[in-house]
Amino acid sequence: MSVIKANNRKIKFVKDFGTYSIGVLGTRVITFLMIPLYTYFVENPSNYGVWDLCLQATIFLLPLSTLQMREAAFRFLFEENDVDKKKRIISFIFSTLTINLSVITLSVLLLSIFWHFQYIWLTLLLLLSSSFHDVMCQIARGLNRNDVYVSCNLINAALVAFLSIVFVAFLKMDISGIFLANIISRIMICMYLQIRLHILSYISSLNNGCWKDIGKEILHYSIPLIPMSMCWLVTTVSDRFFIKFLVSSEMTGVYAAAIRYTMILQSLALIFYQTWQETAIKEYNTPDKNQFFSKIFNYYVYVLGLLLIVYSYTLKFFYPWLVGPNYQEGAQYLFMMGGVFLLGAVSSSFFDLGYQCAKETKRALPAIILAAVINVCSNLLATPRLGVNGVILSNFFSYLALGIYRYIDTKRYFRLTISSNLIIMVVIVISGLILYSVNFSFAYDVLIFIVLLFLSILAMPKGLKSQISILLHKRK
Fold first, then answer.
1. Are residues 371 and 281 in the same domain?
2. How many domains does the chain have?
3. Is the dihedral of CA 335, 337, 340, 341 positive or negative?
4. What are the counts of helices (DSSP H) followed by strands (DSSP E) for the chain?
């Protein structure tokens, strides 16, 4: 590969990373600021725990409600240049989505006859609005309108914040206000996307040939993603349910507030995933694929490790001022939760792209089923005895199994070379976790943080140091 092409690839990756950073970080900052508001005005952790359980249930059901047309919309539109085929893709996606959501609505209507739950209709509205919102946002990405996609994220977060202040702080609507803020904001974003991109103008009637042709190809890609995503979500959202039923409702709220702060790590992981998704698809068939993928992998894991150390200790210092008095206990779990998330992000957001690039999504299913089984079984064994720590350990073992399996399985798509710097960084992170768990004085914690930060900088990959030096030199 020529030097010019390699440089263009780097420039494109950095540019995309910067674009997605604006949307994701802006969104996360606004959402981050909502946590003190929610924990202050929703004084009962049990109520906040109910909202979190409904939110996690919605997230868990999204792959089923959308039939993973979210992922298919991006994957099939991204490489398509023919306008007529784009119309057929979008038409099939919307037709399938509308039919599926109608069936779900009727099912909930029947369920409500036998099960009386105060927030069942608000949860359904959240699911419906989220389904259309997510699919339309991915269509925007697939149409190469990242500018619109980023603006959607920012506007949505701002709307949620504004409406939350109105409903929760001023109108004292408790978690019903949080529901309404999220539902209304998603509906307004769908309207915004229609105004900007005229997505509905792409929809046309489909003949039987189109359903068999386009529909079969899309469903062949998306259907395997449904059980895969739901099994993945078992390992990521089931923790709240295990805590509620095996520990206590109060601890569900405490845990929910603490894990919200992992959104700092989630932000980087999401930015990377969205950027890497585009880059990996484009670079999958290049001759230096293994070298390029290895470099990105080593940089990604290193940066996540560094961010984990900064995030955990910084939050430990300021946590008493960030949440209400009834949520303080969550501080002790911050590093462990962040570390588990780091492992999960590497296992999913990086290795998962191998299956997407090759359009062999069904091969990703066995590993995630294994991880889900390990997660459920270990939770049933450990959580009653260890409480929240049992949930965190269960997530760790399931992500570890997933990472090992996928590292081996994705060798058919690319082969990674792990650098010595990365191994050193992993040792530093493990040391930080052990020291974080010990109740030192504030001064000792600050000293430990500085030492860990210094060692992490020393372990920085040479290539990453060079890139940072070049950027700093250009600014001068």
1. yes
2. 2
3. negative
4. 20, 0
